Amino acid sequence: MYRAFLLVDAIGRLRHLMDWDELIDEYSPKYQKYNKVVNELVVQQFSELIPVRPTREQLSLHVLRTIFARIATYWYGPPEVADITYMAQIQGHRHILDPEVVPGETPQEIKDKQLNYAANANYFDYKIGRKLADGSFHPVGDQGIKLGQPGVTRLRAFPAPVPTEGPEETTPTRKGKGKAKKESASEWAPVTVRRHTREWYRELSQGAKARGSRQSEVDDAFLRTLLTQYVVSGQADAAVFTASPLSLDLAEMPEPTRDLFRQAMAMSGATDLFSFLLAAAEPEAQRLLHQEQRHTARSYETVATKALDTRDPGARQELYRRAVFSIMAYNQEHQLSERWYLSDRALQSLAGGRKDFIKQYKETHAEEIEAHHRALSIQEGFNRKPGKPQIQDLIALPNEPEAFPWGRSSSPSN
């Protein structure tokens, strides 16, 4: 998400660069020309981030309006405002909020008309969800999670509820002056926990969600269930137990081993056995992790190129490795004017994927790539070639892993 003033400034500059009147008619040649380019950029930039709807072949610019509205509602939509109402307001869809009413229409007919307008706006094609342990997503009903943060204000169209007037409670201060803060008029109150705790709680409570209820109501009902079980089990009356650090004196081990640990802990400055064991085990944990990562990287070398086109970061890095090798091999076999500069766009056009993954690979192999450019005198402007050929039309990635030197060495021998 970008700051709004940046987008407003960009639109202002764009209006000065081209004749905006020619784009009013969506059937005009210029409108169709720019619309095609914009939709191609949407597909290129967002295909890895936004899933395509089952009824569509690819993403389009209108999909981004839906995504924007959903994120904005999740962040800033007041919980007491219906999501469709908030999305219609921020996108300027007046007929959803205030439909044209024909005399004699019933309230239900007016409501149906609003829903028809909303359906045309594709408001419900996407929803905010939480990824579960099995990889699926569970929709969440939260709204306005950033309301109340510094710098965040409500839209004037949806002012905060005015608290009901009542007698003002005061508490005496040191000098008998001053007034106590008013209690919130809302019956809802926040509970602050760690993010991982909240995600665990939400995952456990997903089965308790009643149809049509908000996430806050689900959380409240599930928490009440937990508290009831806690009280019924008698744990609420149990004494508070504070776990002590792992004791070296109580652990079962030979006495020489115990003395060895005492000396080592004194030398390391550790105050308890658990902290000492964690510090001592960290190098071994890192070794095992790096060993597994190297094993995983070697396994990608034997995979077909088409099978690497996944969201797996490791597979992506192997895919870009093959793309870079193919471009370098092509450059070495062709004359200067036909060579390609290894830019982010060139790699994305040839192998696909997100630019942040491409940048990650290029940063890791920056010296190798720059050495290739210097050796063959390749400059950034080389990719702007006469006739504007596309790199994917000239260079193909072999699908067989044996087509690459490391793939041949990793394949099993006969």
UniProtKB/TrEMBL annotation:
Gene3D superfamilies in UniProt: Telomere resolvase
InterPro entries from the UniProt entry: ResT/TelK_cat_sf (IPR038280)
Region named Disordered: 157-189
Name listed for the protein in its UniProt record: Uncharacterized protein
Originating organism: Dictyobacter arantiisoli
Lineage: Bacteria, Bacillati, Chloroflexota, Ktedonobacteria, Ktedonobacterales
